[in-house]
Amino acid sequence: MDKIVKQFLDEVSARNQNEPEFMQAVAEVAETVIPYIVQHDIYYGQNILLRMAEPERVLSFRVAWIDDQEEIQVNRGYRVQMNSAIGPYKGGLRFHPSVNLSVLKFLAFEQTFKNSLTTLPMGGGKGGSDFNPKGRSDTEVMRFCQSFMTELYSHIGPNRDVPAGDIGVGGREIGYLFGQYKRLQNEFTGVLTGKGASFGGSLIRPEATGYGVVYFTQKMMEHQSKSIKGKTIAVSGSGNVAQYATEKCIQLGGKVLTLSDSSGYIMDPDGINQEKLAFIMNLKNVKRGRINAYVEQYPKASFHSGKTPWEVPCQIALPCATQNELNGDDAAILLKNGCICIGEGANMPCTPEAISQFKENKILFAPGKASNAGGVAVSGLEMAQNSLRYSWTREEVDNRLQVIMADIHQSCLKYGEENGYVDYVKGANIAGFVKVADAMLAQGVV
Ligand code: NDP
Ligand code: 2IT
User: Residue 1's pLDDT band (boundaries 50, 70, 90)?
Assistant: First the structure.
């Protein structure tokens, strides 16, 4: 088996040179899905995973715009249209200086499996730019978004490709992108998700990823007759996902000790409560400030410059910042400190070395494509509401989100539970694969 997996990875790697993040994501899927393919005649010999590892289409384009000093700036924009077997391409846009093709292809590949798990009809895609919104004025961000959309608009549409937010792209950016799309196309459609509530956005979409991570984590705990209540929790990041994961942990009685950004982490021994979280939300979403401002406001807390939160003893860890932010050394410290559960809020935040330690020690580990699928799931519900020209209440959307997260948990059990241990990586990968593979087989060689 190892030989077949290696042969496959060598072939994919040969045509994707210098794309380490993409190869990391493909390897994780191949290791669990290829043994399943080999045991199932309908998939065997169809080169189905090889087809899934090749994007249907990749767009790369120049984004020129003028900054506030009237300097001409040039960025690179992308859209990776990975797989449309089960629905229109669907996935976020990331604006961050680290964005390149390897990062977006890994995200689009993960997205294909994640979207399949949601039970909703969405294919996989991802896009973005190396544009850095930090320190840019609102008008600069608007001009950038308008230039970006001027190129992208002809490639997307409510039945073709439906982008949304990701790192560096939140409600403000989606608003500007939507405005420019509508102006160019002269059509009001559900072409983007994460829109403002007054122009077609779904209630609960801002909360959905973070809430979903915690709903999934709670399901894993319940499966072992445990609960989040009373547990100490380390969260990384302080953006959209981290904020709402923290909120749901607080509501379920957990004690969140940490939050972070790329400058370091803060640790509050008393726990972050709803009032302190409101301070963070204002700091990050309105003032666009740095996390160390927390310790000026709450002096019992400490700031740890240049460090990640994983050195803080906790029972549950929720990495919600970015890829490869939790490595093998971090995993060893978490295990030594008695951590029993990891729920990935970010995409691929744990390195392969970290994941193998979690598996060896048989602690609960949820891969992002299962545990952070709540965001895109509510995006799917936003698409449904836009098609209906109707909007559901908060309760309605939140209930549907909870049902979807429970269904994803059930799918992971179906394909990942063996001898009382649940391998959520295996479960999520195989469950995500089966639906897309069946659709691809039915649609012929395209
Ligand atoms: P935001 O832009 O709202 O927040 C990102 C957070 O992560 C910030 O605190 C940021 O700190 C930190 N961060 C980003 N890059 C790095 C880095 N290289 N090192 C350390 N910290 C970093 O993004 P989101 O919260 O939306 O996204 C977070 C993660 O969740 C991403 O992996 C994303 O792909 C994933 N995700 C998001 C979904 C969504 O609906 N938004 C859905 C599913 C997954 P700083 O401000 O200093 O850069
Ligand atoms: O990684 C993700 O799932 C997202 N950034 C959300 C994608 C979406 O289309 O809502």
Answer: confident
Domain boundary among 371, 393, 409: 371
| CATH code at position 291 | 3.40.50.720
Same domain? 40 vs 63: no
For 220, other C-beta atoms within 10 Å of its C-beta total: 25
Cα(420) to centroid(ligand 2), Å: 32
Candidates 93, 95, 111: which one to mutate for ligand 2, based on the most atoms within 8 Å of Cβ? 111
CA of 10 to the centre of ligand 1 (A): 31
* SS3 assignment, position 59: strand
Could you say which of 371, 387, 422 is where a domain stops? 371
Active site residues: 126
Whole domain around residue 140: which residue ranges? 57-188
Residue nearest to atom 32 of ligand 1 (CA): 346
Q: Which residue has the tokens 């209540």?
A: 229
269 and 157 share one domain: no
For ligand 2, atom 4: residue with the closest CA? 92
- Local structure of 162: helix, strand or coil: strand
Are residues 166 and 107 in contact, defined by beta-carbon separation less than 8 angstroms?
Answer: yes
Domains in the chain, number: 3
Cα 91 to middle of ligand 2, angstroms: 5
Prediction pTM value: 0.98
In a domain, 276, yes or no: yes
pLDDT tens-digit map of 326-357: 999 999 999 999 999 999 999 999 999 999 99
Are both 284 and 352 inside the same structural domain? Answer: yes
For residues 112, 396, 390, 126, the Cα torsion angle rounded to the nearest 10 degrees is -20
Based on the domain organization, do 45 and 67 belong to the same domain? no
